[in-house]
Amino acid sequence: MKKQWWHDTIGYQIFPRSFQDTDHDGNGDLPGVIAHLDDLADLGINTLWLCPFNCSPMWDSGYDAADYEQVDPMFGSLDDAKRLIAEARKRGIRILMDLVLNHTSSEHAWFQEALKDPEGLYGNYYIIREGREGLPPNRWRSFFGGSAWERIGDSNRYYLHIFTKYQPDLNWENPKVRQELYGMINRWLDFGIAGFRLDSINHLKKDFGDAADKGDPFSYCTNVSGIGDMLQELKDRTYGPRGAFTIGEVNGIHPEQLEAYIGENGYFSTMFDFTFTRYRIRDPQWAGRRREMIRACREACFQSQRTAYGRALFCNVMENHDTPRVGERFFLPDQIGFFSLSMIGCLNLFLGGIPFLYQGQAIGMRDYPKAALEEFRDFTTYNLYRDYLQEGMTGAEALARINRDSREHARTPMQWNAEANGGFSDKKPWFSVNPNYREINLEAQKQDPASLYTFYKAMIAVRKREDCRDVFLYGKTVPMYEETDEVIAFERVLDGKRAAVLCNLSGQECFLERERCEEPERRVRELLLDNYGAPAFRNPGSSSTPRSLAEGIRLRPFQALVLLCD
Ligand code: TEU
Q: What is the pLDDT of residues 550-562, one digit of tens each?
């Protein structure tokens, strides 16, 4: 694989509204990000992806842009964005923006014009169709519940929105729309943005042919044939010639399409591997079947490692702003803690691919279940609640379901210290802080040599070590001990160099037998990391340090070992 400048990325995703408030309005802002650049540099990351900070009425947390060219006053100004880029650069950190090109806000000037004159210039910026005698044009459903069509006033016209009704889909078939968006993207590149995370980018093209009658959005607007031409043009006219770094939010492509999407000349630099965000212990499908879930997840994980090897690098995430926290998805409540979370961190950092952490992940922030629906903030949550009631659930059942699955769990304010509101704001935060901030916060963990944060720092330092960097970036992932339940173990192999990563996902001790290992003679040259080895997490003298993989290895509950082997 050809080396690229962005391959050394250790990324960190920020949800700005919940990061740090500096202007005392209960909302996080860009100066709040600037204020923590030293913390981020201390952790060792070199790339920040910020969720949208453009002008927005916030029906979908900024994924509904009313003006792509401006910073929402809630977050600051263009000057703040400029300062953020400059201050980050001083610390060796690049800034990625979140680009939401599939739709605008319904408050965007283009859409307001379209409403006034659906047959005019701006009407053709969106997807507007005649209804069928008081019914929407077809049965398409939105990703976020209900019909994907919203009626315009009392006319017989409807506009398409694959997300909420406040997010009308742009008409990507219209060259004028594409020109407008390319201009905007190029202006942000001129501004100093290093690249983009491209939101919902595989939904740009809609299929009004055969799929028209199927309701499911995966059938009519996901990776529709011909989308490649759009993605290619988008790249050629904007970030391609600038060599910018891009991460596509792409779901469900076939392995044969990988090359086209993220190969050497792909549409994007990389795309997310969502494997670890899809498995959820609280999902009834896995009730009482944790072993099976881990096995299924391991298979999917190794499958995507095989698919990518030698062709491309996926972007590895354990958490993002759309999922409950990783601990709650993989472990039972009494299992969530330092050992289980640090072990999961090893998978995030040492599997093949480009790692991105989500804010709060490195200190082990937890879900915060709510006592009432009104405590949630996301319009989508309310939509889902309504759908659950329609399906026959009681209010209590619907709330329990929301508490189980809600993406809002990831959006509680960042917990910086033990002061009021976790140091996030001195005013009432827009969304309530998890009261566990007194125990779980950055300040406490920074000072603690045995904390999760300290372990994350140690992991990132290992990834960056001159003699380890390439094996973790480009090494082949060779699965190990696949017969052993609840273990995800593999070697990373490159030009004769080998690193073994052994993770016990079970709350019990397990023994990895020598004959089960493909390369049993490997001698351990160096213990790179052991989550049981605090304070330095490397404790070479400890009894758990194997001298050779041939001895067989005993892993303690949730133990993770990273070993450099001969
Ligand atoms: O999410 C995208 C999204 O939800 C779909 O693309 C996804 O394929 C589908 O739900 C199946 O899982 C992004 C953002 O991450 C999210 O926060 C936004 O709400 C959404 O786009 C709309 O912009």
A: 788 999 999 999 9
pLDDT level of residue 543 (50, 70, 90 thresholds): low
> Ligand 1 center to residue 163 CA distance, Å?
8
Tokens of 23: 């202007």
Residue 400, both tokens: 């329990």
DSSP H helical segments within 321-428, as ranges? 326-330, 338-350, 379-390, 395-405
Q: Which residues contact 2 (CB under 8 A, 6 or more apart)?
A: 264
Which amino acid residue places its CA nearest to atom 17 of ligand 1? 322
Q: pLDDT band at residue 338, thresholds of 50, 70 and 90?
A: very high
Residues shown for the chain: 566
DSSP 534: T
| Residue 278 CB contacts under 8 Å (≥ 6 apart), including other chains | 297, 300
Mutate to test the pocket of ligand 1, among 68, 105, 199 (most ligand atoms within 8 A of CB): 199
Per-residue HEC secondary structure of 56-118 comes to: CCCCCCCCCCCEEEEECCCCCCHHHHHHHHHHHHHCCCEEEEEEECCECCCCCHHHHHHHHCC
Distance 381 CA to ligand 1 centre (A): 13
Q: Which of 56, 200, 202 to mutate to test the pocket of ligand 1 (most atoms within 8 A of CB)?
A: 200
- The protein residue with its alpha carbon nearest to ligand 1, atom 9, reads 143
Q: Which residues line ligand 1 (CB under 6 A)?
A: 60, 63, 100, 143, 163, 199-200, 203, 249, 251, 321-322
- Specify which residues 94 forms β-bridges with: 47
3-state SS of 285-328 is HHCCCHHHHHHHHHHHHHHHHHHHCCCCCCEEECCCCCCCCHHH
Which tokens go with 307?
């698919």
**Phi/psi at 483 (nearest 5 deg)?**
-75, -20
- Distance from the CA of 20 to the center of ligand 1, in angstroms? 24
In ligand 1, the atom with minimum distance to the C-alpha of 102 is 23
Enumerate the active-site residues: 199, 249
Q: Which pLDDT tens digit goes with each residue over 480-508?
A: 999 999 999 999 999 999 999 999 999 99
Identify which of 13, 161, 163 to mutate to test ligand 1's pocket (most ligand atoms within 8 A of the CB): 163
Compute, in angstroms, the gap from residue 270 CA to the centroid of ligand 1.
17
Instruction: Verify cis geometry, omega within 30 degrees of 0, for the bond prior to 535.
Output: yes
Give me the half-sphere count of Cα atoms (radius 13 Å) on the Cβ side of residue 139: 8
Instruction: Give the pLDDT confidence of 15-72 residue by residue, as tens digits.
Output: 999 999 999 999 999 999 999 999 999 999 999 999 999 999 999 999 999 999 999 9
The CA–CA distances, whole Å, from 565 to 259, 437, 501 equal 32, 40, 10
Rounded distance from Cα 547 to ligand 1 centre (Å): 46
Confidence of residue 522 (pLDDT cuts 50, 70, 90): confident
β-strand partners of 491: 478, 500
